[in-house]
Structure formats: C-alpha cells, structure tokens
Specification:
Elements lengths: L2 E2 L9 H9 L20 E3 L3 E3 L13 E5 H4 L7 H7 L2 E5 L4 E4 L1 E3 L1 H4 L13 H7 L17 E3 L2 H4 L7 E4 L4 E4 L4 E4 L18 E6 L18 E13 H5 L2 H4 L5 E5 L23 E6 L8 E11 L3 E4 L11 E8 L4 E18 L2 E10 L2 H12 L9
Parallel strand pairs: 4-19
Antiparallel strand pairs: 1-8, 2-7, 3-6, 5-6, 5-13, 8-16, 9-10, 9-12, 10-11, 11-14, 12-13, 13-14, 15-16, 16-17, 17-20, 18-19, 19-20
C-alpha cells in the first residue's frame, strides 16, 4: 500500500511525496497562466482512401534516440499551413489488417488568417545543466540518483492519476484519454516505414491488483505484482508526419491513438494544448510508465521542464525503454473550472542529442501537443470538431 523506492530511506519520505501527489489542486499555490487559452483550429477530414494491407515487417525499437541541431530545433516555427496539414493527414490501421489514408485541411473560415503557435521561450536552465553531460552518451539516461518510484498497492494502482496508465502489447506504455481511446508513441506501433509485427494483433493491458482477485497478501509478506487484463485494439491511427519523413523530422509526430474494441470503466485523463513551461504549475511534468528495468511494475516520476521547442518538451525525468508512450501531464489552468487540473499535454518519446552553438546536450524528450496536433487527436477521439471545442 505504499510508493516504493530503492533508496526511500535516504530520499524524500513517502508521506511527503503523497502530500505532493494527492494534495487537492485547488490548494496548490501557483500564479495564473501568462497566456490566454489557445484557439483550437477546426480540421476538415476528407474521404478516406484505401491503401494496401500492411506487411507488419518492422521490429519494435523501444530505445528511441535521435539527433537534432539548431535548424531542426526551430523547425516548427516557420512551417506553412499546407506543410503542416499534410503532416496531419493520418493512416488508420484496422484489426483485419486493412488501412486507409485520410487527408485533412483547415476549415475555410480559418484558413485565411491561420498562424501556427508561436515559438515557446527557451529556458535558461537547459544550457547550464546539459553542458556537464556532453560526453556521457547513454541512451534514455538516469540523471544522477534514480528519481523513479514504484507504484504498488490497490490504493495507488487504482487511484487517479496512476490508474490511467496502461500497457501496450508491443512493450510500451499508453494513457487512457477517453472511455475507448489510448494514447501512445507512434514508434511503438510503426517504425516510420511499416507497422511492427506486434501491431497485427495489438492489445492494451489494464493492471489488476492481486487483492482484487481475492489474493490479498498477508501483513509482512512480499507484495505480489499486479496482473494484467488484455483488451484487443479495434483500430490504430498514426499521423502522416511520423510516416513520411526521416527519423529526426518525425519525432515531432511520435504519437498514435488506439481505439479499444470495448469501453473500459477506469477514469481517464483529459488532454490539453501544451502551455509554455512557465504556465505549468511548478513548471513540472509527470508521467507513469512500465520501464523495462522494473518488469511488472508501474513507475512514476516527475521533473521540471528544461527546454522546449514548438514540438518537443526537453527534460531530465529518469526513464528507461518501456516508458515510451507514457502520457506526459502537468497541472494546467482550466478557465471553465477556474482551477488547476491534471491534463495530458504530450507523449513521452525517447532520447535526443541536441547540438546548438557547438555544444551537445542530451535530454529525454516528449512530444508537445500544439493546437493543430490537439485538434487532430481530438478529432480521432470524437469524430467531429464540435466536441473538441468543449475539451
């Protein structure tokens, strides 16, 4: 019934961590956001075009690493409407192996005065902290002391927000964003050229604590690891921006949405356009995943945002392969509710070496939900733009 950490006795006390995690958001002391709520563009989907069946020839590579320089760091800032809507076209893979391609465009009423989200400011902390690690070329690093926590016990595994994390049968993590939809990383199901072998019969795993099956552990005995209930996926959607380009380009679109055959009964987490880090409560992000070095365990971590571009969130949250696809969330101000709410603002992708001004910096990276990406994913979930304006 506790959060478990290998060095808990010398680190943050469990009780204090619980206060940080479970304190009602209305009691969090934070300044109000600097920017107004972003405008969500309306997308128009064209008639899907049939494609040939997938060969499912790709191998899933969970340790995803890319390299980027100044030009790709600033790439999203100058993209025109035509280029971005081309990247936001999407493929749909169905359970029988068939697939379609759907082109999208902006609503005509918005197309004339459309402009992309302005570039977010680069945080000064990123340059100084990363310079000390320029020669440590380890993938998906643990930055200093391991700051991850194992989530154990019914009270935590079934409690929000940890209960929104699910397993993906290809070895990744996903997050529940509706009663039938799971968000994950695109590279967990597609390598940029073809779907991975495991995507042919893709499944989503829901954790079931042993005690819920009548196998409660006795006091003083080791806690059993949770079981997994697997549910088949009805269809998978991947943005064309992931499929069409080289690896460094498509990391900006490393996300996919899975639709389940049947609705689940777990709480899910709402999505939001990613604000600038300065407009996140505490300037922190959080995510829970199934890191490969802790098999069978749900692992939680949080950390400050170090840098950010138009499309990516750069941070040093400790993570290992298997955490890919985790829903990255922060406490975002909700104008309608007039309070801070946990919302998914991105997807954990992998590791990137960023070279700027002759200096190599290494980060763990999450994809940011820009207004266009949010509109696309919201359309996948709801099938219309009316409901997206309410999210």
């Amino acid at each position: 019934m506790t959060l478990d950490h290998p060095s808990m006795s010398s680190r943050l006390p469990c009780a204090l961590l619980l206060v940080c995690l479970l304190l009602p958001l209305s009691r969090v002391s934070c300044a109000l956001p600097h920017q107004p709520a972003p405008h969500i563009p309306s997308l128009v989907a064209h008639e899907p075009l049939p494609l040939s069946r997938s060969r499912f020839s790709a191998q899933a590579h969970l340790d995803f690493t890319t390299h980027c320089n100044a030009s790709c760091f600033h790439r999203g800032e100058g993209e025109g409407r035509e280029k971005l809507t081309e990247q936001l076209a999407f493929e749909t893979l169905y359970a029988d192996g068939s697939r379609t391609l759907t082109a999208v465009d902006l609503d005509e009423d918005e197309a004339s005065d459309w402009r992309d989200e302005p570039a977010v400011p680069v945080l000064a902390t990123g340059r100084s902290r990363a310079s000390a690690r320029r020669h440590r070329r380890q993938k998906r690093q643990i930055y200093g002391a391991d700051g991850r926590f194992n989530i154990r016990g019914d009270h935590f595994l079934l409690d929000y927000p940890f209960s929104t994390a699910v397993r993906i049968s290809t070895g990744c993590t996903g997050v529940l964003v509706s009663q039938r939809h799971v968000l994950t990383a695109a590279h967990c199901v597609h390598d940029g050229k073809d779907y991975v072998k495991g995507a042919r019969k893709l499944r989503v795993g829901f954790l079931i604590p042993p005690s819920s099956l009548g196998n409660a552990t006795l006091l003083g005995t080791p806690a059993k690891k949770p079981l997994v209930r697997w549910v088949r996926v009805r269809r998978t959607r991947v943005p064309k921006g992931w499929i069409q380009g080289p690896q460094e380009v498509s990391m900006d679109f490393d996300y996919a949405l899975l639709e389940l055959r049947w609705p689940h009964r777990r709480p899910f987490m709402r999505m939001a356009v990613a604000p600038s880090a300065r407009d996140l409560a505490g300037k922190r992000i959080h995510f829970s995943g199934f890191d490969s070095d802790r098999p069978g365990e749900l692992v939680y971590r949080f950390c400050p945002v170090e840098d950010e571009s138009n499309d990516l969130i750069y941070q040093h949250c400790d993570a290992r392969p298997g955490a890919s696809g985790s829903g990255v969330y922060g406490r975002v101000w909700d104008d309608g509710l007039e309070r801070w709410e946990r919302k998914v603002i991105g997807v954990f992708s992998g590791h990137q070496w960023l070279e700027i001004d002759g200096e190599n910096r290494d980060y763990n990276v999450a994809v940011r939900f820009t207004p266009l990406k949010f509109a696309q994913i919201c359309y996948w979930v709801h099938g219309n733009q009316v409901d997206c304006s309410k999210d």
